[in-house]
Hints:
Layout: H1 3-8, H2 14-23, H3 32-39, H4 44-57, H5 61-70, H6 72-84, H7 87-94, H8 113-123, H9 147-171, H10 177-202, H11 204-207, E1 210-216, H12 218-221, E2 231-239, H13 245-264, E3 275-276, E4 289-290, H14 292-301, H15 305-311, E5 315-319, H16 321-336, H17 344-357, H18 375-389, H19 401-410, H20 416-440, H21 455-465, H22 472-501, H23 515-525, H24 530-541, H25 546-564, H26 568-582, H27 586-594, H28 596-608, H29 610-618, H30 629-632, H31 637-650, H32 654-677, H33 683-712, E6 719-725, H34 727-730, E7 740-748, H35 754-773, E8 783-784, E9 797-799, H36 800-809, H37 813-819, E10 823-827, H38 829-843, H39 851-867, H40 886-900, H41 912-921, H42 927-951, H43 962-971, H44 990-1013
Parallel strand pairs: 2-3, 2-4, 7-8, 7-9
Antiparallel strand pairs: 1-2, 1-5, 6-7, 6-10
Helix pairs in contact: 2-4, 3-6, 4-5, 4-6, 4-7, 6-9, 8-10, 9-10, 10-13, 14-16, 18-19, 18-22, 18-23, 19-20, 20-22, 21-22, 22-23, 22-25, 23-24, 24-26, 25-26, 25-27, 25-28, 26-28, 26-29, 27-28, 29-32, 31-32, 31-33, 32-33, 33-35, 36-38, 37-38, 40-41, 40-44, 41-42, 42-43, 42-44, 43-44
Amino acid sequence: MTAGALARRGFGDSVRALSLVTAAGLDTSDDVDVIGALGAAADPDQALLGLVRLLETSPDPDEVRSALRRESDLRERLCRVLGAGTALTDHLVRHPEDWRELRGADAARTPEPEEARRGLLHTVGAHPDDEAPVADPAVVEGDGADPSATLRHTLRVAYRRRLLRLVGRDLTGVNSVEEVAAELSDLASSLLDAALAVARWESPEDAALCRLSVIGMGKCGGRELNYVSDVDVVFVAEPVGDADEQAALRAATGLATAMMRIPAETDAEGTLWEVDPALRPEGRNGPLVRTLASHVAYYERWAKTWEFQALLKARPIAGDVALGRAYGEAISPMVWESSGRKGFVEDVQAMRRRVVAHIPTGEADRELKLGPGGLRDIEFSVQLLQLVHGRTDERLRSGNTLRALTALSEHGYVGRGDAAGLTEAYRFLRRTEHLLQLERLRRTHLMPDPDSPDGPARLRGLGRALGFTSDPVRELTEARKRVSAEVRRLHEKLFYRPLLNAVAKLPEGEARLSPGQAEDRLGALGFADPRGALRHLESLTSGISRRAAIQRTLLPVMLGWFADSPDPDAGLLGFRQVSEALGTTPWYLRLLRDDVRVAERMAWLLGTSRYVTELLLRAPGSVATLADDADLRSRPPRTLMAEADAALRRYDTPEEAVSAVRALRRRELLRTASADLLGVSSVEEVGSALTDIAAVTIDAALRAAYKKVVADFGGEELTRVCVVAMGRFGGGELTYASDADVIYVHDPFPGADGGEATRQAMAIVRELARLLEIPQAEPPLKLDTDLRPEGRSGPVVRTLDSYAAYYRRWSQVWESQALLRARPIAGDHGLRSAFLALVDPLRYPDGGIDTSAVLEIRKLKARMEAERLPRGADPTLHTKLGRGGLSDVEWVAQSLQLRHAHEHPDLRTTGTLETLRVAVAHGLLSAEDGVVLERAWRLASRVRGMVMLVRGRPGDSLPSDLRVRAALGEAMGYRDSSDDDESDVEAEGPAEQLTETYLRATRRARAVMERVFYDD
Length: 1016
């Protein structure tokens, strides 16, 4: 045998392999078949090294070599085991006689489920036929020094021997993935029964007080366990005879705890696996052991939907058989009624989001279990269909994923082709997961990282074990991607496609639901009106037109996206309305079909925002802007102004011209709202965009009004006019619900009659307001002039000289504060500059404001809090006037400007956040306080805007309706929180997360405000 020949047989380091072959005494012509079997292993080099180690520790290495030469079955099994990983090789080195476990016809035989239990109980000296078997160290070989340790070690070694035999059958194709998983489950159950027998021997007084049953959950309960996986369990106990219940529960807890330690403890055999009781009632916070009545009471009163989903796989696996059976009979009916429980939809949606939430950053592409297109997608789909339809169809009630999938297919809930595709994908993913775990007998469901030092070699071995021989790494990678894509496709299709079959004529052979079944499934998706949803689906998909055919392709996917939105019913209705509005427009459905991002975004927006839906229905063609983030970003004011100018030139009447400009504003509102909801734009960008389009609209309307009024005055221009933005408008911080706070200034031309000039100015501003508020399809833009001098009692429009006289004689501190946000946005440019020159000394006084003015501002703030907060409003939840809300932050910023802008010119800005940043830069505000205030202001602004987007009407407080608040939280990106432990109790929802985040941020801002604003 040469190094070249070994290389051709698959050995990576042929020179080293040649020396190992010689060391193993396999360099004769009789050993060609042995070398070939080693070369066929997943990792030939590892298999050869493992054989050398085995021969070195074997008491009779010649017997091993001889058996390998003569017995082809042994040769294949042993070489495959040695090449699969180091863990079982280490076992064979520790127990060199155990290679015989892979020898003979018995090694190829699949044992009956009871065989493992009886064998492991015999191992610890217990009698399998006893009602409560007890171990007996007297029949177990050991040194006698520590009988308990001897029992535990003997049991663990026996488990490894049975596992070794199973792996030999698995790697040589004797058993299917399902058979391997079932045997692993039975082996785990048997080990727990034997461990419980040991625990009874260790604590006979406890065993005498109680009956204890172990209920398998998760994969063990479904007889689909991995080689290394947590074994999820629940314990149920009852007193024996007249024993005190509390004493019996304490005894059962001691037995359960001792039993769990045996597979989890570490010795020379390593850790077998962990026993995880976290799926019990109340999770880790609940008692380890309960009586049957206590379990029933909990599930009847407190359990959440996810707990019933977990119970779907519950099965007695060890301990008292009769008690375990009674548990199943009591709990099972509640499992299958859970889909009718209140809150089922919300819990289902939370469980759906958990799949994504559990994926660690950067590992999604390598995750076999949690990643997109992974095992969890298959399991979740099957279980959800079972919960929905198993309520009325007992044939679907299986805890095993593949058996349940087969039943769903056979009885018409899933298409046969889809079920076959998912079954094949499930087997591939589980087979891959098993092979990964066999490397070191450690829990993992993560593909090797190709960029790690040993990644390529591990991927090569994994590919070879799966049967990819030409280019194992490439073939494995392509197969993995292909399977994941197929799972994602089928995950979407199998739950949603049959809904369309219920209302549309689709190809024969597809799963077909009755209307009632379709309604159940839509209800499970979160539709509050399943019948209405079915009508929408029928309208969209009926007929033989190309449009209907494309809708039938789109909707199975889009229904899932609607289901993930806060209001699926509104989303589907909006989609139908938009689709009908666009009619046969050729680009629309083609865009949705060819650009999945547009379809997904559209579903989310329609199911989240009434405001966006209303805007989109007025201009359905705007769907095209969803294709690219760049199309969603706000456009420069100069570009908007050019479009407004074109509209003014295009139309003859001011009504038509301003209507066109308002249509431009509506389009920009939709663009801004979409970017906001999709996370493309920040709070500052949203405020700036809303301010810019409002300013452009007012400027264009002012020009149209000016032209019309001058014409009405015989063509004589008597005065020049400008509009000054105030408040949030002046600060560039408008929200969707904000009125445009303005004041009007006019300045008569030289020689003009003052009274006539004022009359013309009044006519202009009245015409401006009329043009902006004419009832029509476009959203109105309401102008608010309450911040003018003398408030509502003063004239709506004043001359520049009148402003100067008023401010010189009557101006109060609050007016100087209001002028901090004054910014001319429309009208005569010379008048704009003159107005700024007039008000700058008022808002940025030399030397700053004096102590009396500071005190006056503080009194104003206190009075505003006491008088302006709406009756019944919660001051902790009001975004504008509440504690730590917008007003608190803005008054801090404005007080700093009034006191220090004279010495720091860069404080002369109308924006709140810019003011805070400049104040921090100059040391007027600590960096920490600046962060706290900015965070609260951003959050309050975003909440205020999102209330309008979600509800379609304004609101200044967090909604009191928890459903609306949850929708608001989802719109803002909050999801059900969860850690990586799938057995956790129900995750905190979006409403609670939003509330907690808001209260925390505003509480801190309020503390800063009180310290900074009221600090002498």
